[in-house]
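Lab notebook, bench 4. Still working through the backlog of constructs that have no structural model yet. Next entry is a single chain of 148 residues. Request: give me the structure tokens for it.
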Amino acid sequence: MVAQPDPLDAAEGRLSASTRVLSLAPGVYRFSVAAGSPTDVARSGDLVLPAVYIAPGPDSSAKPIDLMSGPSANGTWLCGPGDVVFARVADGAAKLLMTSIPAEGGEALEIAIDRVDGRAEPPEAADSDAATRRAAGKKRKHALPIGA
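Model written out:
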């Protein structure tokens, strides 16, 4: 039997999050923190917030996606300047989930997504959010506000 956690007071244990689905064409992409900074760890318990988590979508098992974190990132979490995650999409369009957890005051990270393999990206493989589409080779930034 698993022991139940102690009840938390009203300020602790409550996090909000928003998730974006990205559809990426075959290629190599770099995800990095464009703006925003983590809050003091002591004010966020043991968590560094704001933060963004990058993961393959639940239906992506048929579409190979390799994720690799940079030297300062913690897995595929992006929390501050210098955090980098690379995604390699091998075959066909693949879906990634970007989940944003803002700081207590609502500050969310802005994530820059760059295609780094030099190939052109077909328009139909761009992000599903038309406001964040970009021409190949140019930086596209994603702010993940809560409730988006």
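Notes after review: Confidence is low (pLDDT under 50) at residues 7-11, 122-148. Strands lie at 18-24, 27-35, 51-56, 65-69, 77-78, 84-89, 94-101, 110-115, 140-143. Flag for follow-up if needed.
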